[in-house]
């Protein structure tokens, strides 16, 4: 009887936490970033102000990172993505708490300029650190696609 109750409780907890086979529940796009070696993807797009931007997405289509700025030329936006892919190890991640006491990160170039920021917030510093690890691992192997303007 006790065994059945514990098994039932475990099932309810797994459903409640949204367990998907990952070792621990993650917030935001982090679960997708950690799932079975799935690749991340960069999307280059033009915003309403006609500037080019990029975002890094997990396989669940949630945004993990965004560019620190908009670009007038698509080529400059692509160069920013290339720097993320090729020079990530030379840049510095900074973790901070926002006004709501959630954790976020920003990526700074060697000159101190913010070149990327978290696509959302994380409830714990550990979750934020896991997102950074997923980006460090996944961004260099991510595919890059250009979205058509609407």
Write a compact overview of the structure shown.
The chain has helices at residues 2-17, 30-34, 74-86, 125-138, and strands at 41-46, 52-57, 63-67, 92-97, 103-108, 114-118, 143-146. It has a single domain (26-146), classed as PH-domain like (Roll). With 150 residues, it is α+β, with helices and mostly antiparallel strands.
Keywords:
150 residues; alpha+beta; PH-domain like; 4 helices; 7 strands; disordered N terminus
Shape: globular
Q: Give me the number of helical elements.
A: 4
Structural class: alpha+beta
Helicity level: 25-40%
Determine Rg (CA atoms, Å).
18 Å
Portion of residues in beta strands equals 25-35%
Beta strand count: 7
Strand order of the largest sheet: 4-5-6-3-2-1-7
Task: Tell me which CATH architecture applies here.
Answer: Roll
Instruction: Indicate how many domains the architecture comprises.
Output: 1
Ranges where pLDDT stays below 50 over 5 or more residues in a row are: 1-36
Biggest beta sheet attributes = 7 strands, mixed
Instruction: Report mean pLDDT, rounded to a whole number.
Output: 80
Q: What is the ordering of alpha helices and beta strands? A: HHEEEHEEEHE
CATH fold-type name = PH-domain like
- CATH first level: which class? Mainly Beta
First-last Cα distance: 59 Å
């Amino acid at each position: 009887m006790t065994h059945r109750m514990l098994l039932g409780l475990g099932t309810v907890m797994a459903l409640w936490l949204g367990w998907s086979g990952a070792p621990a529940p993650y917030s935001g796009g982090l679960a997708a970033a950690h799932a079975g070696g799935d690749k991340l993807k960069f999307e280059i797009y033009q915003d309403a102000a006609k500037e080019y931007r990029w975002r890094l997405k997990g396989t669940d289509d949630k945004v993990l990172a965004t560019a620190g700025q908009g670009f007038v030329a698509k080529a400059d936006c692509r160069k920013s993505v290339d720097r993320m892919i090729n020079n990530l190890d030379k840049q510095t991640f900074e973790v901070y708490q926002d006004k709501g006491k959630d954790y976020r990160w920003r990526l700074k170039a060697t000159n101190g300029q913010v070149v990327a920021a978290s696509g959302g917030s994380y409830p714990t510093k550990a979750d934020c650190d896991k997102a950074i690890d997923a980006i460090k691992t996944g961004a260099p192997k991510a595919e890059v696609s250009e979205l058509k303007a609407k």
